Fold these 3 entries.
Entry 1:
Amino acid sequence: MDKGMRVLVIDDEPQIRKLLKVSLGAHGYEIDESTTGVDGINRVAAFKPDLLIIDLGLPDMDGKDVVKTIREWSQTPIIVLTARDQEQEKIEALDAGADDYVTKPFSVGELMARMRVSLRRSAATEHEPVITCGGLVVDLVQRRVTVDGREVKLTPTEYELIKILAQHRGRVLTHKQLLKAVWGAAYNEDTHYIRVYIGQLRRKLEENPTQPRYIITESGVGYRLMDH
């Protein structure tokens, strides 16, 4: 585990802060906490955390605005906490620059798994020439994709889509983020493109496209390439 990693929790609920302090502290994380967005933003500069956990429902300002403000000068991984029915909130937080989200009530195990993915991604170089996710291998230099050693022929658009998912493996990407990365900003409302191409990719990459192992649907939000 990432011993000594510093985590800043920005949340006004005392029971959540206590839960995180005790459970993450037991795994060797160093925890600091803030109860407001303004204080949290200031603490980022002072505490220099390795990862941030931000509740979207803060008393003084919108959690999405906290994410946006921090993203202006910091690439520290951010996980947001959301209520179960806040689908649009999740999407806007991810589009604002959050790395991932966990829905309340959450299990500490799930949160820590998300944290490990985010920390691993920030520690890895952005330009790995070969990305491996279980049996799926994406070779960025040769633009070659294999599954369990078998080469898969992809169209240029299919390749761009699996490439962006692989570069952010383990992290959910919104429809808007995928459209912008693959098709350009002008297409950010055309979500049917993504559904069509994800369907094509699953038929080529998955053993059983109806029960995908690799490309997971995050209902109403986007897609995540599982970091096996």
Note: Residues 6-123 form a domain with the Rossmann fold fold (CATH 3.40.50.2300).
Entry 2:
Amino acid sequence: MGRTDRVSRLIAASPTTVYNALLDRGALEAWLPPEGMSGRVERWDPRPGGGFRMVLTYLDAAGSPGKTSEATDVVDIEFGDLVAPERVVQRAVFEADDPAFAGVMTMTWHLVPAGEATEVTVTAEDVPSGISQADHEEGIASSLANLASYVEKA
């Protein structure tokens, strides 16, 4: 069993608004890539058992080696449990030759009402050993900050 990483953020939007941003292709392309990356969804099937394929590209690949190529991380995501507006479970597999990035990482997005806001907690289980905990938590925090910016201005 691999490592578990967890990051939370209070977002000034309803759980339904946040949930919808987790299941909208254009929204994901806008907010999911962490700082320093852009993202493109290549395949989209938003239902349990469906999923998406995302190509994340480093804006400056120098010093940021990708998992798939020097400048990219490609990840196939399968949707597991989708419980509106409480939870989204994703199973992520990185396209990589390095076995340190192999395996299935499960990411659960928990959405809990907090007054007029939503506490969003991302729990990543079985994180591949090639992804450092500090970098992973920083990346998740960056994606949550992007999500907050995306839904709070909506």
Note: The longest helix spans residues 133-152.
Entry 3:
Amino acid sequence: MDYHFRKAKISEIPQIWDILQLAIKRRKEDGSDQWQDGYPNLEVVQNDIEKGEGFVLTEGETVVGYCAILINDEPEYAKIEGKWLTNDDFVVFHRVAISEKYLGKGCAVKMIGHIEDFARNNNIYSVKVDTNFDNFAMMKIFEKLGYAFCGHVYFRGAQRNAYEKVLHKSKF
């Protein structure tokens, strides 16, 4: 499969929103309260893309995954209950969702690899992320990829597990 990772386009919002809606439904079916409070929503996605922070993983013309990438922009991370590995510049990613048709094909791992490349390309060697305490699939991916559990952060009153990975200056 030939996957590409790039900034999302406004015209792709319907595809992205379909992927996110199914991911929201999947989280609910898994018994999770993550993403069950009206977030993320269409406005959040449009805002991501307009600010140049929305990214897609594609196969040909098909959007197979979505995420938002920000640099040094997560105020809640300053209030961590625990300790980050670094205090330098960091890339943070949110709203990772993979199309139903592409689940189990390693697309989330591919996407996170591209996010790490994005960080390196911006001379940033820390990637920070959080997920719900019951998102076992994502926590397993973080552990597999070498992310360290650093403590807890809070979003909209909910506790989340916080992770960080320190990147090497070059991939090789």
Note: The chain has a mean pLDDT of 95.
